[in-house]
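Before relying on records like the one below, remember that each one covers exactly one chain. Contacts with other chains, cofactors or solvent are not represented anywhere in the record.
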Amino acid sequence: MPNAARWVLAVLVTCVAIAPPVAYFRFQYIHAKRFREVTPERFYRSGQMTAAGLREIVAENGIRTVINLQHEEPDPLLLDRWMGKGVVRESELCRELGVKYLLLTPDVIPRNLPRGAVPPVVDDYLAILDDPAAYPVLIHCKAGLHRTGRLTAIYRMEYMGWSRGEALRELRANGYGNFMASEADEFIIQFIKNYTPRKDRPQAQKPAAAPAPRRAPVAAPAAPPAPTGGPR
């Protein structure tokens, strides 16, 4: 057999051997994109899943509230599968499953925010998590890394007593990046470095009763809000 033919045959055999595992990995990755358990039976995080993936995660973990963090996709059209087509809006699927669907936009940092302040969206986030009826909760952005990571860090500090250092170490370990998870990143400064758990604030008192969430479920808005910063 000529050398060229042997080379072509070798390439074909390699492709046949590699293609199925790669395809299966991509299917699993998109199906339940970076899904992670943060606190068992209480708090979970992920990227944007397929419709089938979200159905599965909701059923397996009893999710009651889904929080979407994508201001560029306020109500994403979910694919039915990897390389599939869009089949259903996330809010519609959540309504079908009996799950509350909420939109928060933690990327939009007001230009006039005072130095040392925390973005106002954090108060909306805490109001949701203060409600015992909201749990189990799933938060997600597009990739499940940056926006999801920052708000998971706030959950760790506020409700689990983690230090900023512990929260940042988990952030880096889950793919945020060592350089970005530092004071080189304005988002890290405003959402994590500037954040103080309510129990540690001067004259802070725990609320007598858990406040109700201040945001209503999103029902496929006509257009996303205009961001002042790019998606992260």
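Strands lie at 36-39, 43-46, 65-68, 77-79, 86-89, 100-103, 137-140.
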